[in-house]
Amino acid sequence: MKTEGLIKTLTFLCAGSSILIVFLIFGYTLLEGLPVLIKYGPSVLTGLYWKPYADPPQFGLLPTIIGTLSVSGLAISMATPIGIFAAIYLAEYSGGGFLKSFIESAAQLLVSIPSVVLGFIGLVFLVPTLAKFFGGWGFSILAGGIVLAIMTLPHIICISSDAIKAVPRDYRYASLALGASKWQTIRKVVLPAAKSGILASIILGLGNAIGETMAVLMVIGNPEVPYIPTSILDRVRVLTSTIVIEFNYAVWGSDQMRALFAIGVILFIITAVVNLLAFHILRGRIHAKKI
Amino acid sequence: MQRRSEILIEALTWVASFIPAILAGAMISFLLFNGASAVSWKFITGFPEKGGLEGGILPAIIGSIYISALCMLMAAPIGIGAGTYLAEYAPENLFTKVVRFFVELLAGIPSIVIGLFGYVFLVHGLGLGFSILSGAIALAFMILPWTVRVSEEAIRAVPRDYRYASLALGASKWKTIRTVVYVAARPAIITGLMLGLGKAIGETAVVMMTAGMGITGYIPVSPLDSARTLPVHLYLIAGEIANTSESLKMAYGTALVLLALFLMVSIPSLMLRNYFTRRLYGDAG
Predict the structure, then answer these.
(1) Window B:152-171, CB contacts with A under 8 Å
(2) Which positions 34-63 of A are in contact with B (Cβ < 8 Å)?
(3) pTM
(4) Across the interface, do B85 and A243 touch by the CB < 8 Å criterion?
(5) Do A24 and B113 touch (CB under 8 A)?
(6) Which residue ranges make up each domain of chain B?
(7) Which residues, listed in sequence order, are joined to residue A221 by a DSSP beta bridge?
(8) Cβ contact, residue pair B201, A114, below 8 Å
(9) ipTM of this complex prediction, to 2 decimal places
(10) Which domains does chain A have, with CATH numbers?
């Protein structure tokens, strides 16, 4: 009887450890980033210039934030249509069996291929190809968007297909019985019913894209002085790439290092919001299903 | 006309669903085609020379295996424990909901933020320095949600009847979990953990900021040694491509070895996973 209680407590502690870890991560990152956030105030978010070596230094992230949003936005707009179509095939046409598990395994494999390998292929193949077709550097929002779309696609496929599968069968039968074709049923009945789950998959994909580091970093060019991009062929910096690049040069305890932690805080908050949104939406769907 | 558009749509979704497989296949073939000539016995078992621009990558291979193994040693037991709690003990109350949310939140935290945290908390705060131990702990934080998720799913997939049969024979709850549930869930847990190991092997940002970047001419032994792993080596060498021609060959070779290590762990687990899932559900049906 004693072991029973002990085991229950032990597993309870294991489960609770995630909460502790999240608080540790947020607490320590905030503690390091806060001095810069207080010292420079809202100009961190709205400032146009990132000049850590100037006197006095400037830590404006606006061009970097716009860079992040444009790369991730481009990625999502490429990955979403393909992802939803693939999810429809998985959930509605594949009929289970070998083909379905093959497609799912491929998506799982693609999502866990080391991102630095993806970035390397982007660097030696994609960037020169883009430079040949469009001229210029090749390092661009476009290159980052394509690489990120590849990494986001499996997320969208998996979550969307789950959402489509969760639509009750009766809906489909009712539509088919009214004489609608299979595609009409999917378009007019199944997709609207799965709408919130698909939306959640896009939001989570966006969150993943914003937080992705290595693959994007290697193909977007990272100009010395970030500027607001005007074309998708412009080089940009993103939040994550700024941390990696300057981490090597920043001195422990300097404002520059603290500014990198401030970027970490911003990334953490974006992730938390994205997850809260998706959590909320998915819970709404489960409630709807019960009704 | 109606009929034709139906077929067209189905074909379109079919094509879309194969895109991940095509992309993965294309990338693997691309590296095999371009990298095979760079990989030799000397490359795999040799030590780096001239800052990694010549010679071999043995210390990086060992460093990668060392860090990811140590990481799984920490993340696996906690993940299985948490998965057991969520699948077997957790009542449907607020705490359980909060735990689930935090597991998802932790999974969503960008790896670079975990790297920053590892740098301030492990490297400086706890004084572990840039070391294999710091790298492994930070990596374990990153992998933990994955191990929780696969353990919970595997334990949940065990048919209820197995538990009832064991309980009816007079076994206690923990004895049932230990001798019946874990045994039935073992293949799914192990393959899931292997997939997590694959993710750990490929992670760059976290390890770079906690285990260090210095090129080492020796094999790391102590967990307090600093180590440069394969992904970090690839990233740093790839940064030299514009400057020297040798580095391109070295980078291709490193990328191929890293990919091979990753695939050796991932492909068998993915295949076994499908096989076991089907067998388990087959039994239940």
Answers:
(1) none
(2) none
(3) 0.92
(4) no
(5) no
(6) 1-38, 40-284
(7) A236
(8) yes
(9) 0.91
(10) 30-290 (1.10.3720.10)
3-state secondary structure A233-286: CCCECCHHHHHHHHHCCCCCCCHHHHHHHHHHHHHHHHHHHHHHHHHHHHHHHH
* Closest residue, chain A, to B91 (C-alpha): A12
The count of residues in chain A is 291
Taking the Cβ of residue A152 and every Cβ of chain B, the question of whether any pair is shorter than 8 Å is answered with no
Residue type, B42: K
Q: What is the pLDDT along chain A (291 residues), one digit of tens a residue?
A: 688 899 999 999 999 999 999 999 999 999 999 999 999 888 888 888 888 888 888 899 999 999 999 999 999 999 999 999 999 999 998 877 788 888 989 998 998 899 999 999 999 999 999 999 998 889 999 999 999 999 999 999 998 998 999 899 999 999 999 999 999 999 999 999 999 889 999 999 999 999 999 999 999 999 888 889 999 999 999 999 999 999 988 888 889 999 999 999 999 999 899 888 888 887 755 434 333
- B85 to chain A, any CB pair closer than 8 A? The answer is yes
Q: What is the CA angle B180-B183-B189, rounded to 5?
A: 130
Kind of pairing, strands B54-55 and A50-51? unpaired
* Residues 6+ away with beta carbon under 8 Å from B262: A112, A113, A114, A117, B198, B201, B202
B6 contacts chain A (CB < 8 A): yes
* Cross-chain CB nearest to B235 (options A4, A116, A204): A116
Beta bridge partners of A287: none
CATH number for the segment(s) B40-284: 1.10.3720.10
